[in-house]
Inverse folding.
């Protein structure tokens, strides 16, 4: 997809429509489009959210958003009269807050800048993505990690999942667990289990739970 890569922007990538085939199809007047029901609950839910969802189970499909949140990026939002800078992770909105919007942009506002701070000494990041097609395709599950470590011991860690929630899904309990721990297969596996503790899969996407745990484990081991 060189054409998309050459004209796509980071602003457009983090603001892109979320993924749900009922939403993107003109045939389904679902909750998010002003209808009465979410078709993913009884319908085909293989790509839908397992974390932070309800009443809509739509997923955030961006690859750059989880990586930027893991890097603690800041975002500048402007309208004709004013601008504000906020942490990128506060840009995205869960359906339980507003199921008709994916971010906090108000009419007339655009994203004008994304600022990525210089990583702290000893930091290493990793991005891992599973996609269905052997072509450029949205993530079914992805994970971005940034670990600041010394001698294999984590001083701090940021772990953000993509493709599993309506927003880039940070897992603070797993990050806290990792602080001060030697990162090896066992601790990375435990962090994955902690990260998925609150998962509520629909009938067709239970597989995402194990997939996300596995990706977290691999990404953490690769981040030290
Ligand atoms: C075949 C295909 C495969 C794809 N695969 C992937 C993938 O693997 N991973 C991935 O992350 N994405 C993927 N995408 C999505 C694609 O990369 C994004 O849609 C693209 O990056 C959007 O960039 P753009 O600048 O063209 O935005 P546009 O398409 O122009 O805009 C997208 C949305 O964001 C809004 N917008 C754009 N810029 C701003 C701004 N500065 N401030 C506020 N709102 C803004 C627009 O109004 C629009 O609603 C794929 C798309 C296609 C068609
Ligand atoms: S997940 Fe959201 S967008 Fe998809 S059918 Fe349900 S309400 Fe509509």
């Amino acid at each position: 997809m060189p054409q998309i890569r050459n004209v796509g922007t980071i602003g457009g990538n983090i603001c892109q429509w979320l993924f749900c085939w009922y939403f993107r199809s003109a045939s389904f007047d679902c909750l998010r489009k002003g209808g009465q029901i979410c078709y993913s609950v009884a319908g085909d839910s293989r790509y839908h959210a397992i974390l932070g969802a309800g009443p809509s189970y739509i997923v955030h499909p961006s690859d750059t958003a989880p990586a930027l949140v893991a890097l603690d990026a800041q975002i500048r939002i402007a309208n004709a009269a004013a601008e504000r800078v906020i942490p990128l992770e506060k840009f995205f909105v869960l359906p339980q807050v507003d199921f008709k919007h994916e971010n906090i942009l108000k009419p007339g506002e655009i994203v004008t800048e994304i600022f990525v701070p210089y990583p702290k000494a000893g930091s290493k990041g990793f991005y891992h993505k599973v996609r269905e097609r052997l072509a450029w395709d949205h993530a079914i599950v992805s994970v971005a990690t940034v670990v600041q470590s010394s001698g294999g011991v984590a001083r701090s860690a940021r772990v953000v999942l993509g493709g599993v929630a309506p927003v880039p899904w940070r897992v603070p309990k797993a990050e806290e667990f990792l602080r001060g721990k030697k990162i090896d297969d066992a601790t990375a596996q435990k962090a994955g289990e902690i990260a998925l503790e609150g998962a509520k899969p629909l009938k067709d996407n239970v597989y995402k739970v194990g997939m996300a745990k596995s990706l977290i484990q691999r990404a953490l081991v690769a981040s030290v």
Summary: The two ends are 32 Å apart (CA to CA). The domain at 2-115 is CATH 3.30.465 (Uridine Diphospho-n-acetylenolpyruvylglucosamine Reductase; domain 3). Helices lie at 2-7, 10-15, 21-24, 39-42, 64-70, 172-178, 185-195, 207-222. The chain has a mean pLDDT of 96.
